[in-house]
What does this fold into?
Amino acid sequence: MLFQEAAVPHGHDPLSVGSMTHDSPPAAHDHGAHSVHQHGPDHDADVQAEILDLDAEVLAEHIAFITAWLPVTASPRHIVDLGCGTGAGTLALLNRFPESEVTAVDTSASHLHRLLEKSKAEGLVDRVHTVRADLDAAWPDLGTPELVWASASMHHMADPDRTLRQVHDTLAPGGLFAVVELADFPRFLPEDAPEGCPGLEERCHAALDQHHAEHVPHRGADWGPRLTAAGFTIEGERTITVNIGPPPTQAAGRYALSSLRRMRGSVDQGLTAEDLAALDQLLDTDSPHSILRRDDLTVRTERAVWAARRT
It folds into this structure.
């Protein structure tokens, strides 16, 4: 795995923060979601959960690298994970700070349930509290954490500046806010792939960029100035480049398959019939052209991190 660092901010990732109901204070252990709300059908939530789980598995070293870099002044006792998904950040933070407890906030009941199952398997469930929340609606009572972590969730906010102010006011004085965003959807194929349709993945990304420009306007934002405007002091920025493989691991192959399957629904209006046919061959696990049969896959992505202090 290759890590390269630079101080150039970017942003993007497939995680959502949505609807909220909060029935008990975060100081009480809650090993089930507080309420039920999802943006799409159960199948879509399951597909997204699979991608998040694979992302956590394939990029585990990368996530640990970011948590180790955080400029904390003292080990935080209470951490909030905004848009926790299925728990990649939550579990990494619990392992990084062994005396901490994490309040995990997400829109999806199924994601929170999966997070709790993972934390049980690792013997960490007594340190996890879940809150099902729409951060664009009423802000839940999250206590006064020393660290707030938001990975791939800020760009989904309807009013991110309002959210930044809410985080600022929620944090303990001197507390740290870590914003992690993907610069782009991960890439997996060589530039000359697939045979007969070279450059397909780049055309898929161009179509996806157009889709996101219409539906996710805060994707790719520079969060530094917005954090400063919300009253934070920026203490560090990193852009980390990840390049894994080839040869691909089994998890990387499944990650590529699940990610491109999810992309398929957003790019079909922006691709030619020939490109769609080639993409569908890659996604057909019974096809000899299936992405799972390729030995030249890589996982290439960038993530930008901002560490901002409430002073």
User: Anything to note?
Assistant: Residues 250-267 form the longest helix (18 residues). The longest strand covers residues 232-244. Residues 7-22+29-183+220-236+303-310 form a domain with the Rossmann fold fold (CATH 3.40.50.150).
